[in-house]
Amino acid sequence: MLEARNLTKRYDGANAPALDRLNLTVPDGEVFCLLGPNGAGKTTTVNLFLNFIQPTAGQALVCGIDAAVDPSAARARLAYIPEQVMLYGALSGLENLQYFTEISGAEAPRESLLSLLAAAGLPKDAAQRSVRGYSKGMRQKVGVAIALARRAQALVLDEPTSGLDPLAANEFAALIERLRKEGMAVLMVTHDLFLAKQCGTKIGIMAQGRLASVFGADDVDHLGLERAYLDLFASAAA
Ligand SMILES: Nc1ncnc2c1ncn2[C@@H]1O[C@H](COP(=O)(O)OP(=O)(O)OP(=O)(O)O)[C@@H](O)[C@H]1O
């Protein structure tokens, strides 16, 4: 479970908080998609869960553990897939997975790691090829396999499908749905309304560091979500 409790961040010298008493809960087996315009506070939220930055007030809880109070315990339960998954180009997908699994303190035999890469959708013949030749979608799949190998209970994703072609984005959405069904709590930041509707059990729209609207998966269709988003920001743009 991921939970933000009155989570607030004011960067040094800023007039207004980037994040202003955010409250949100992502129970196990749910995908919360966070939408919002540039500067709304989405990445700040992610960075607080990862303890890359410290909150000014409030808490970012990972499975009940305050990320700022016990960062290593929180990180042990949380996997992060950024827009660009950083891997060692000279190593194969399998070797990267072995390396990142080992440094996280987890252990898995080679055959299990190969199975995880396959479960994440990496083509079998790619697993032992150098990552330098991987597409962005293939790197994302290694990122998912790393999360699986670490047995993370929660997953945070920042713009995971930007730059993926529609087929790869669709495959990625299916993968997230599988992780959700297996009980993972997923927080996904995206600008892609279609992906949010496809993956989200809940969809939040952020504005100026606050959640301006939250929808359940069945509350809106794709068009309704787009209309709600545009209505929220049309007056600001006018
Ligand atoms: N390190 C920083 N120092 C000062 N201000 C920052 C810093 N990082 C972000 N901000 C400010 O905090 C606010 C929220 O930024 P944030 O990156 O969280 O937005 P975002 O919703 O992720 O935007 P985007 O969609 O462009 O990634 C913005 O006003 C931004 O300028």
From TrEMBL:
Presence of the UniProt keyword Lipoprotein in the record: no
A family per Pfam: ABC_tran
GO molecular function: ATP binding; ATP hydrolysis activity
Domain ABC transporter: from-to ranges: 2-233
Regions crossing the membrane: none
UniProt xrefs under CDD domains: ABC_DR_subfamily_A
Domain of life: Bacteria
Key words of the record: ATP-binding, Nucleotide-binding, Transport
SMART domains listed in its UniProt record: AAA (SM00382)
InterPro entries assigned to the protein according to its UniProt record, in alphabetical order: AAA+_ATPase (IPR003593), ABC_transporter-like_ATP-bd (IPR003439), ABC_transporter-like_CS (IPR017871), ABC_Transporter_VariousFunc (IPR051782), P-loop_NTPase (IPR027417)
Family per record: Belongs to the ABC transporter superfamily.
Official protein name in the record: ATP-binding cassette domain-containing protein
Organism: Methylocystis hirsuta
